[in-house]
Design brief:
The structure holds 2 protein chains of 2 kinds. By secondary structure, chain A is mainly α. Chain A contains 3 helices and no strands. Chain A is flat. The radius of gyration of chain B is 35 Å and the shape is elongated. Classes of the chains: A mainly alpha, B mainly alpha.
């Protein structure tokens, strides 16, 4: 189960990076990097298709995403707390 | 993957939120207490202290049998799944970014110089162009002189 989680959620992370960065590069890139951005977008969509349709593991996607988002939000709140403490001192 | 929408916020989101805050406080506290001086160093120690306290509480509530929060939050198995999911997704996102940066560095990102009309530039006779410019300048000077004389 743990190995399934690592593989599936690792692919989810790669997919998010591909979609996010691909979108930025495809929109703001120069004529050459734009093509690279579009290919990243295609790769991201392909990964999404694999995860939704072909991945047969029992990993609960939404709960795993909740854990990922919770960790990210918690990290941001911690850094905000650090900045507030430094600025207010 | 199981895409059925079963949200277990209290067992997945909340523990990871608290762990995220704890890790961020621990990391910033270590950084500030080491590199800071005077007042900011004291703040660094305070942040470090709170980070350690938060992470220790999470550990005790999950693995140590301390039921500080009622309900079934901080269940050991689900906490492990949540932690694995969060770390795996973060690792995957970092790996994806590295792949993107690697590809971008390997691809020639400079726009093609073929778009410039270099053939026209090669055909230019610079001496002739220079003579033309000089003639134009001389003509304008002559015109100015005649206008001043009038």
């Amino acid at each position: 189960m743990d190995v399934d989680i690592v593989i599936s959620m690792g692919l989810v992370g790669v997919m998010l990076a591909m979609l996010g960065m691909g979108l930025l590069i495809a929109y703001y890139g120069s004529s050459k990097t734009r093509n690279v951005g579009v290919s990243f977008l295609v790769l991201g969509v392909g990964l999404a298709y694999y995860l939704v349709v072909m991945d047969t593991s029992d990993v609960a996607f939404w709960n795993s995403m909740l854990a990922f988002v919770g960790g990210m939000v918690g990290g941001m709140l911690g850094i905000i707390a650090f900045l507030v403490a430094i600025i207010k001192s | 993957m199981d895409m059925v929408s079963n949200y277990d916020v209290m067992n997945f989101f909340v523990p990871m939120l608290i762990v995220g805050i704890g890790v961020a406080l621990l990391a910033t506290g270590m950084f500030t207490s080491y590199f800071g001086a005077g007042k900011s160093q004291k703040i660094g120690f305070a942040l470090l202290f709170f980070g350690i306290v938060i992470l220790a509480l999470v550990y005790l509530m999950t693995f140590g049998g301390v039921d500080a929060i009622p309900d079934d939050t901080f269940e050991e198995d689900e906490f492990n799944e949540a932690l694995t999911s969060g770390i795996a997704a973060l690792g995957g996102a970092i790996a994806g970014m590295f792949i993107i940066l690697f590809v971008l560095m390997k691809v020639d990102t400079v726009d093609d110089l073929e778009d410039l009309d270099l053939e026209d530039l090669e055909d230019l006779d610079l001496d002739e162009e220079l003579k033309k410019l000089e003639e134009e300048l001389n003509q304008t000077d002559e015109n100015d002189n005649t206008e001043e004389e009038e």
